[in-house]
């Protein structure tokens, strides 16, 4: 990673921007926006009133609020991992003291207020309640469920407990889009897709080749070996694509075969990348895996949006 060029004497807004470039890049916003839009069209699936179905102008603001949630999650992680990151990544903007945890707490507080107010304004008491449930779980993640020393040694369980917030996020986003949303099979499939996708990406980014392994940094290749970790990603990518196609089938989209073929084609590319990594586990291979999994994830959400907007409920 290229070191961010910013000094202690630069304006605070620039130092915060440098931290975001390093730890929360703008490119990530695309995934957050698409996740909201997919949740929104699922929440409005089957609505007969044209004003209530599809996408709306308010969704633009909702996308930005969704972005603020993932910024808040990043801030929680920065606090949780600060001590170990000082050792492993002393060059980072936060760890080098160019910004402080207090700066991030202030930024996080603003994000919390924005989310809560927006939830109440768009979905009333229901929106505020669902946000509170999701936020309570995020707080539990922040304190690592009061068993951090033990949980950190159970890497797979750690990932599962932390990815469990994804269905709650989809529930909250769905309520923002439609306060009267019900737990339909399509919404449950969307919650499942978010969980599997997040879990898959988390495993992928911590499946490393020998050149990347460090004594003070955990990875799935350390506990499962290169073969075990890669085959786990293989299984999760496959589950993700099956989940995508199942969601579209449950929604009764027209021309399901076309969406399924597109999903499978991207799945083939992801598997091809994983097989290359299996034969030659390198940093470049891991980065290619991340890109392949990210594309598979993004395409899945785009297919959900397109399928439900164009031919949902057919």
Please provide a brief summary of the model.
With 314 residues, this protein is mainly alpha-helical.
Summarize the topology.
Blueprint: H1 12-23, H2 29-43, H3 58-80, H4 82-88, H5 101-142, H6 148-151, H7 155-163, H8 165-177, H9 185-205, H10 220-250, H11 256-279, H12 283-311
Helix pairs in contact: 2-3, 2-8, 2-9, 2-12, 3-5, 5-8, 8-9, 9-10, 9-12, 10-11, 10-12, 11-12
- How many domains make up the 3D coordinates? 2
Low-pLDDT stretches are none
So what's the overall shape?
globular
What is the chain-wise order of helices and strands?
HHHHHHHHHHHH
What is the fold named in CATH at topology level of the largest domain? Answer: Tetracycline Repressor, domain 2
Relative strand content: under 5%
CATH class of the largest domain: Mainly Alpha
By secondary-structure content and strand pairing, the structural class works out as mainly alpha
- Portion of residues within helices: over 70%
CATH architecture tag of the largest domain: Orthogonal Bundle
Number of helices: 12
Distance between the termini: 48 Å
C-alpha Rg, in Å? 20 Å
Mean pLDDT level: 92
Total E-strand runs: 0
| Main sheet summary | none
Name given to the CATH homologous superfamily of the largest domain: UbiA prenyltransferase
């Amino acid at each position: 990673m290229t070191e961010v060029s910013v000094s202690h004497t630069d304006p605070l807004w620039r130092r915060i921007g440098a931290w975001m470039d390093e730890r929360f890049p703008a490119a990530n916003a695309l995934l957050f926006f698409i996740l909201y839009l997919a949740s929104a069209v699922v929440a409005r699936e089957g609505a007969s009133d044209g004003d209530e179905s599809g996408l709306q102008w308010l969704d633009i603001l909702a996308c930005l609020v969704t972005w603020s949630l993932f910024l808040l999650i990043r801030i929680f992680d920065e606090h949780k991992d600060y001590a170990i990151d000082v050792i492993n990544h002393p060059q980072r903007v936060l760890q080098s003291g160019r910004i402080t945890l207090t700066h991030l707490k202030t930024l996080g507080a603003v994000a919390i207020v924005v989310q809560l107010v927006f939830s109440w304004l768009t979905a009333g008491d229901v929106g505020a309640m669902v946000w509170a449930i999701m936020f309570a779980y995020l707080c539990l993640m922040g304190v690592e469920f009061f068993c951090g020393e033990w949980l950190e040694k159970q890497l797979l369980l750690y990932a599962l407990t932390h990815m469990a917030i994804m269905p709650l996020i989809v529930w909250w986003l769905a309520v923002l889009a439609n306060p009267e949303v019900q737990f339909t099979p399509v919404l449950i499939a969307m919650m499942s897709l978010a969980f599997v996708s997040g879990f898959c990406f988390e495993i992928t980014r911590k499946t490393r080749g020998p050149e990347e392994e460090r004594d003070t940094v955990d990875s799935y290749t350390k506990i499962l070996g290169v073969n075990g970790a890669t085959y786990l990603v293989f299984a999760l990518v496959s589950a993700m694509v099956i989940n995508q196609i199942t969601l579209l089938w449950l929604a009764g989209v027209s021309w399901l075969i076309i969406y399924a073929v597109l999903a499978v084609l991207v799945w083939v590319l992801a598997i091809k990348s994983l097989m290359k990594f299996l034969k030659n586990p390198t940093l470049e291979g891991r980065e290619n895996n991340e890109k392949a999994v990210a594309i598979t994830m993004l395409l899945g959400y785009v297919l959900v949006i397109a399928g439900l907007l164009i031919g949902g409920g057919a």
